[in-house]
Amino acid sequence: MDSDVAEYLRQLRMKVTPKRLAIIDILKKESGYLSPEEIWRRMKKRFARIGLPTVYRNLEELANGKVIYRITHPNRQLYYFYCGNSVHHHHFVCVACRAVNDIEYCAIGDLQEEVRRKLSGRVVSHLLQVNGLCRNCLKKNYKGTWR
Amino acid sequence: MDSDVAEYLRQLRMKVTPKRLAIIDILKKESGYLSPEEIWRRMKKRFARIGLPTVYRNLEELANGKVIYRITHPNRQLYYFYCGNSVHHHHFVCVACRAVNDIEYCAIGDLQEEVRRKLSGRVVSHLLQVNGLCRNCLKKNYKGTWR
DNA sequence: GCTCAAATAAAAATCGTTTCTATTTAATCA
DNA sequence: TGATTAAATAGAAACGATTTTTATTTGAGC
Ligand SMILES: [Mn+2]
Ligand SMILES: [Mn+2]
Ligand SMILES: [Zn+2]
Ligand SMILES: [Zn+2]
After folding, report:
1. CA(B52)–C1'(C12) in Å?
2. A–B: how many Cβ contacts below 8 A?
3. Is the pTM of this model over 0.90?
4. Which residues of A make CB contacts under 8 Å with B?
5. Tens of pLDDT along chain A (147 residues)?
6. What is the largest CA-CA distance in chain A?
7. Sequence spans of domains, chain A
8. Which helix (DSSP H) or strand (DSSP E) does residue A94 occupy?
9. Fewer CB within a 10 Å sphere, N or C end of chain A?
10. Domain B3-139 has CATH 3.30.450.20
């Protein structure tokens, strides 16, 4: 359970430090995305000394290693969430409660096809994020602006 | 040609100022996206006095009015481009030369369907951007990192 | 032309993020 | 185990893209 993560970190040639594990644990327990500062606040409950730059650095490294992911937020600040799903997929983000859920559908095949046929170009990466209101926030009739 | 823009600005209740028109004109003439500072540099060739905050403010307001659009860049800074296509579509962005081309294909119907069926949620917006190398940069064998 | 809200210039501030440097720690191996 | 060493960290400082502020100018309506 936690040893998967440790093993995965070793594969990435990253040291298995208590703070790294804690950051992953915090994100695992959260259903939605968090900002570096929010993660830092939670870290301060677990560690007497923990610097904000450490949180930033680890978040970036973990995202590089695909242990965690970023969402694209209209305020253009950084937000991260944990996702253990290793097959290609995208995300449905609740703009009210910040919950992140997997979306299986991806039309990259058709997109590549159109780029090749009409533009003679080559697709290198793509970004698909679906935003909206999750089941719960829909029930609560949340007036949806981004959080 | 330029009066379309003026008319459209009036519809948006925005004053038709020379600087606003110049910003749109600069973006229209560009095949790719530009940063606020790059637009400012071009503006300084046309106006003796032009402040960077004016450029920022106008870019945001024009984007709100859908006269221009943003791209999502990995460095999380602001970039804008002009697009006159008024039907729903997405963009293919060349990471080498910054060219932006329209993509017609959009699977929003299927995505909404999946969100409703599997998550009982409601889609409010979606973000689809395809990145890669355009025809020309492919020819030049450009080693593609983002610009 | 006159009026007034909107737009602007210029300077300053903001603040999320990154960099720097000395210190600590995890991993390796004797 | 203890020594070694590169990676990780704390804390302070810097950074810089973007935003705010205030006085001045300008476009639109009459
Ligand atoms: Mn996922
Ligand atoms: Mn377009
Ligand atoms: Zn995909
Ligand atoms: Zn779409």
Report:
1. 14
2. 111
3. yes
4. 72, 76, 78, 92, 94-95, 101, 103-105, 107, 110-111, 114-115, 119-135, 138, 144
5. 466 999 999 999 999 999 999 999 999 999 999 999 999 999 999 999 999 999 999 999 999 999 999 999 999 999 999 999 999 999 999 999 999 999 999 999 999 999 999 999 999 999 999 999 999 999 999 887 899
6. 58
7. 3-139
8. strand A90-94
9. N
10. no
